[in-house]
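Hello,

Our lab assistant flagged a job as stuck in the queue for most of the afternoon. It eventually completed. Since we weren't sure the result was trustworthy after the delay, we are filing this so someone can double-check. Below is the sequence as submitted and the structure that was eventually returned. Let us know if re-running is recommended.
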Amino acid sequence: NLGQGSMEGDAAVYMPQEKVMFLGDLYDNSLISRRPINDLSAWLKILAQVDTMDVLSYVPGEGPPGDKDDFEDFRQFLEWIQGTLDPSSMLDTLPPPGRVARRAVAQ
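-- returned structure --
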């Protein structure tokens, strides 16, 4: 068990001789996950730990297995989501208040 990432009770199986990692819900290859995210920071820490292991093939819970490049693409995608969802990173990109927002404040 690498810890709780995408879901409570996430588990992975590493086969070092075959250099295969079964990641279940921790990894989606060619799919955009529709699962709820419990703790994105913890999930990324787990993926960073997996990234240090000697793995050639990453097997997701759904979709086809992936190689190191596929795994890295997925990890970077989650990092992008984390940066996009971080409220402090969105302050500069928020649109100016519109009529609806001004009306709500005036009431």
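-- support follow-up --
The delay was a queue issue, not a problem with the job. The result is valid. The chain has a mean pLDDT of 76. The two ends are 52 Å apart (CA to CA).
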